[in-house]
TrEMBL record:
A single Gene Ontology CC term: extracellular region
Protein name: S-protein homolog
Lineage: Eukaryota, Viridiplantae, Streptophyta, Embryophyta, Marchantiophyta
Major location category of this protein: secreted
Domain of life per record: Eukaryota
Length: 144
């Protein structure tokens, strides 16, 4: 009986931490591929918040065309992500770009006044748009 109470406590702690994470202002990014036939073997996502060494690495298999990961939407300047496409047939990285999402000049993705905003990111072959509170990153393939 004591063992079941212990596991119930662990579940309760895990759920409360997840709820706190969402309440602290974490937003959702969705990854969308515009050309499923060109889907890579994996997509690497590495994110860094300014002033911290913490990095998150998320890998998406080729059959996952729409996925999400969580990023702290309260961060202002300097929050960035690297996206890397890996094509197993060529054993090469198709594209690796870094971009800054947040800044203070009025183009922050989470601005309330921005109902459906779009950003082209350094002409890098993908763009970001916001619909409601979800930011979607759409890949437009551009081999290098």
């Amino acid at each position: 009986m004591e063992v079941s109470k212990f596991f119930a406590l662990l579940v309760l702690i895990a759920c409360s931490k997840a709820d706190a994470r969402l309440q602290e202002g974490y937003g959702r990014f969705e990854i969308k591929n515009t050309m499923p036939e060109r889907s890579p073997d994996s997509v690497g996502v590495r994110c860094k918040r300014p002033g911290l060494d913490l990095q998150e690495v998320v890998l998406y298999p080729s059959d996952v065309l729409l996925h999400d990961f969580y990023a702290d939407e309260r961060v202002s300047d300097g929050w960035s992500c690297d996206f890397n496409w890996y094509d197993g047939t060529l054993s090469a990285v198709k594209m690796a770009q870094e971009f800054l999402v947040w800044n203070k000049n009025g183009s922050s993705p989470y601005l309330e006044s921005c109902d459906r905003c779009r950003w082209k990111v350094r002409e890098s072959g993908f763009y970001l748009y916001k619909d409601s509170k979800t930011w979607t990153l759409v890949f437009k393939w551009n081999e290098i």
